[in-house]
């Protein structure tokens, strides 16, 4: 063996300088696991040694990899995190383990051993100092176990974040973030905090459910929460989030009715709270970085010149939730204030809170891809960089798996020299990395996805994700069956329209797109018949399911609107036959999504979606089943036997009334099937 070659095999041991250092311990475990995964034979006993070395000839979290003896490679860095990055670089560049292997189910090539000759590897030259994931709205992750373990799942979250280049993480929301912040730090990640959880403190309303969440009434209780949170985290890698919204992700004054709140009154409280938090951190954890989320209501106060805070905070500005660098819509208020040209007279460092996943209870993407293209995201992020919003970047990852395409590209944008890329370049890179055949056909499917999305607003970026359909369906049913005239929470899409006018407007938005979605689903099914098993599994979980959420969701919404409009002009009982059948079709179309999830081609993921409480396709199916029976109740008799007797039974049977009936009434499912068969040419 030459002095510039090292053979990795089953005989290679990964050893840490100090296994009491949790970061080094996990780095060893990950690299050792990957060596066992990709090699099949023992060549010789040798060693990869991981060490923190204050004299390492690198800066920051960079690392050096050296062949220090014929049977020993040394990975050294001045920091534990740097050593972790070095171990992952070996996994990525030498063992060819993909950064997103866990979420994409990639299968690594296995060889007898791996010959390693190039040791000149270093940390990427990052433009963004603090690079983070915000694992937010993590319902699917929260409700799912792998290896019968939640701990294992979160460890893979932390590993993947590090592989993508993160050095910062918000490890969940509320109780989850507090549970996970110590395990995340054990992997070497710095902890940042949700904008609704300043300083990472406990929620007031959770600890004191019987008290009004008012800082003005109970300032000492709030101060104790902040104090305890700092003491718990002091001396550990933490970026403290300052501010005060209230309990949960909403304004504090909605829970505080002690006075009338105008902008100045709100600003006085916010500024005072931030100054108190700032001083507390300076006293208890001096030198810790601090950030201010200029999010939601605070952005409006900032633009009015009412925000007065210390200048050494990092300002974090947020996109619209749909990737556009304008202010987020708040209910009916949608000023779309540009965020990239806001003056910075105090010359504060600035960062970004950016959504590739978003849950707004209305039209965003929770289970599926962002409804705006990766090319759009790449362009927006580079605009933000050109304006200096690159000190800290937190990316809302949602539940990670549905959003790999975007997370992978965002990780590239953190590197110096990155230039905005087109869909063509992004998709070619992505598809060729994860698929072994039919790449151009798969790229076309991705392209057709964004061509098919519904635009719900007047601006090109106001496009609908997977949440739109179940959200609107449930509100139509609630409004319709309760005899009300307007849908709650839907003014953002229908204005002040009545239910009748609102559904007509929505149907006008979606109807022209239905053939595109139907064709896309058909093209998926055709292509998956010709893919090898691994590629078919990948495509099913990566884009086919996501497409079904849109295609079947929008089709269901259209059917519900048709059923509503026909039922509103019904004059006799039989006029409810077609609405009944439309509701039946809507129910089965929505339920097809649930079936597709639970019959995932990869058994690892079949139960990943069970805790979805946002799109909640199962709940939507239940409501559609209820709607179907409601329409039968309106049109059939009280004993639910008239439609069966007149349209399904043989004439002789229907007219013999001696025993009135000989069997129980048909179920809604069976009745709908038989009616559709008999009346297919008549309705």
UniProtKB/TrEMBL annotation:
Record's keyword terms, sorted: Hydrolase
A GO BP annotation: carbohydrate metabolic process
The keyword Glycosyltransferase belongs to this UniProt entry's keyword annotation: no
GO MF annotation: an example: hydrolase activity
Pfam hit, one: Glyco_hydro_115
Coiled-coil annotated residue ranges, if any: none
PANTHER family: GYLCOSYL HYDROLASE 115 C-TERMINAL DOMAIN-CONTAINING PROTEIN (PTHR37842:SF2), PTHR37842
Name of the protein in question: Glycosyl hydrolase family 115
Organism encoding this protein: Lentilactobacillus parakefiri
Source species taxonomy: Bacteria, Bacillati, Bacillota, Bacilli, Lactobacillales
């Amino acid at each position: 063996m030459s002095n510039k070659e090292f053979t990795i095999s089953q005989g290679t041991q990964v050893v840490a300088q100090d296994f009491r250092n949790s970061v080094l311990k996990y780095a060893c475990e990950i690299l050792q696991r990957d060596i066992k995964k990709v090699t099949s034979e023992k060549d010789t006993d040798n060693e990869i040694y991981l060490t923190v070395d204050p004299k390492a000839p690198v800066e920051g979290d960079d690392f050096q990899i050296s062949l220090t003896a014929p049977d020993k490679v040394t990975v050294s860095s001045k920091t534990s995190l740097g050593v972790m990055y070095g171990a992952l670089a070996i996994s990525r560049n030498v063992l060819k383990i993909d950064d997103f292997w866990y979420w994409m189910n990639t299968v690594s090539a296995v060889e007898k051993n791996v010959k390693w000759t190039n040791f000149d590897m270093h940390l990427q030259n990052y433009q963004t100092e603090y690079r983070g994931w915000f694992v937010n709205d993590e319902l699917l992750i929260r409700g799912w176990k792998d290896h019968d373990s939640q701990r294992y799942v979160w460890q893979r979250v932390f590993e993947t974040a590090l592989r993508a280049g993160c050095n910062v993480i918000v490890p969940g929301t509320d109780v989850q973030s507090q549970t996970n912040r110590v395990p995340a730090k054990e992997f070497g990640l710095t902890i940042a905090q949700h904008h609704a959880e300043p300083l990472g403190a406990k929620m007031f309303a959770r600890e004191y459910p019987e008290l009004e969440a008012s800082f003005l009434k109970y300032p000492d209780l709030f101060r104790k929460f902040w104090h305890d949170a700092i003491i718990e985290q002091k001396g550990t890698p933490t970026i403290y989030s300052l501010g005060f919204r209230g309990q949960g992700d909403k304004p504090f004054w909605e829970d505080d009715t002690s006075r009338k709140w105008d902008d100045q009154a709100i600003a006085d409280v916010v500024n005072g709270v931030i100054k108190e938090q700032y001083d507390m951190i300076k006293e208890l954890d001096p030198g810790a970085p601090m950030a201010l989320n200029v999010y939601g209501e605070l952005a409006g106060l900032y633009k009015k010149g009412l925000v007065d805070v210390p200048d050494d905070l990092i300002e974090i500005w947020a996109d619209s939730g749909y990737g556009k660098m304008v202010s987020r819509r708040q209910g009916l208020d949608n000023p779309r204030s540009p965020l990239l040209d806001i003056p910075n007279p105090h010359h504060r460092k600035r960062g970004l809170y950016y959504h590739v996943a978003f849950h707004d209870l209305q039209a965003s993407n929770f289970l599926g891809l962002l409804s705006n293209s990766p090319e759009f995201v790449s362009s927006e992020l580079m605009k933000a960089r050109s304006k200096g919003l690159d000190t800290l970047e937190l990316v809302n990852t949602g539940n990670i798996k549905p959003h790999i395409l975007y997370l992978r590209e965002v990780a590239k944008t953190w590197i110096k020299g990155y230039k905005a890329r087109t869909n063509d370049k992004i998709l070619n890179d992505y598809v060729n990395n994860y698929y072994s055949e039919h790449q151009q056909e798969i790229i076309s499917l991705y392209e057709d996805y964004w061509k098919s999305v519904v635009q719900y607003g007047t601006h090109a970026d106001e496009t609908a994700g997977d949440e739109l359909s179940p959200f609107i369906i449930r509100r139509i049913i609630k409004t319709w069956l309760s005899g009300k005239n307007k849908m709650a929470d839907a003014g953002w899409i229908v204005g002040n329209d009545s239910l009748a006018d609102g559904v007509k407007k929505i149907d006008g938005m979606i109807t022209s797109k239905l053939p595109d979605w139907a064709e896309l689903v058909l093209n998926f099914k055709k292509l998956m018949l010709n893919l090898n098993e691994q590629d078919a599994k990948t495509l099913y979980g990566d884009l086919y399911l996501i497409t079904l959420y849109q295609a079947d969701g929008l089709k269901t919404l259209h059917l519900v609107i048709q059923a509503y409009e026909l039922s509103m002009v019904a004059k006799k009982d039989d006029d409810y036959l077609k609405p009944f059948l439309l509701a039946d079709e809507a129910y089965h179309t929505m339920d097809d999504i649930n079936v597709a999830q639970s019959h995932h081609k990869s058994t690892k993921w079949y139960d990943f979606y069970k805790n979805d409480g946002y799109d909640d396709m199962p709940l939507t199916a239940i409501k559609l089943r209820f709607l179907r029976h409601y329409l039968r109740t309106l049109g059939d008799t009280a004993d639910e036997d008239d439609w069966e007797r007149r349209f399904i039974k043989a004439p002789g049977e229907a007219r013999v009334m001696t025993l009135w009936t000989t069997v129980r009434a048909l179920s809604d499912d069976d009745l709908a099937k038989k009616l559709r068969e008999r009346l297919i040419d008549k309705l």
